[in-house]
Amino acid sequence: MAGGNAIRGTRVGAGPMGESERGESAPRQRVSYWCANGHESRPAFALDAERPESWDCPRCGLPGGLDEQAPPKAPRNEPYKTHLAYVKERRSDEDGEAILAEALAKLRAKREL
Ligand SMILES: [Zn+2]
Q1: Rounded distance from Cα 79 to ligand 1 centre (Å)
Q2: Centroid of chain to Cα 107
Q3: Residue 59 located in a structural domain
Q4: Which residues in the chain show pLDDT less than 50?
Q5: Is 60 annotated as a binding residue?
Q6: Which of 4, 30, 74, 85 registers the highest number of CB atoms within 10 A of its CB?
Q7: Is 39 annotated as a binding residue?
Q8: From CA 69, how far away is CA 32, in angstroms rounded?
Q9: How many domains does the chain have?
Q10: 20 alpha carbon to ligand 1 midpoint, in Å?
Q11: Residue 97's pLDDT is what?
């Protein structure tokens, strides 16, 4: 009686079967992501999980994409672009006002004639 209990106890504690069962119940896929610096990162996802379109490179922090030939660009220069767009927008507004004022002046001149 006592000997049987001891054997059962060691089986539960060792459990090499439990580890392989855990691996089978959660199958994983490795997905390659490429950053603009050519680094490859291969995070693992569960097979039924949706893989994200981008993955931050663990080496340089740039966003990585699934396409090695066309990795996503670093988003660092966006504030400059936004500023430039703002300046352009403002300038075209001023131009528009000048053209409008000129047109109005011509219209008034014609009426007076
Ligand atoms: Zn990188």
Answers
A1: 22
A2: 54
A3: yes
A4: 14-15, 18-19
A5: yes
A6: 74
A7: yes
A8: 12
A9: 2
A10: 34
A11: 84
Report the pLDDT value the prediction gives residue 69, as an integer from 0 to 100. 95
pLDDT at position 4 is: 53
What is the model's pLDDT at position 42? Answer: 96
Whole-number Å distance, alpha carbon 89 to ligand 1 midpoint, is 35
Per the confidence metrics, is the pTM higher than 0.90? no
13 labelled binding-site residue? no
- Parent domain of 101: 83-112
Q: Which two tokens stand for residue 95?
A: 């131009």
Q: How far is the CA of 65 from the centre of ligand 1 (A)?
A: 11
Measured in Å, residue 1 CA sits from the centre of ligand 1 at: 62
pLDDT computed for residue 38 by the predictor: 95
Specify the CATH number for the domain of residue 35.
2.20.28.270
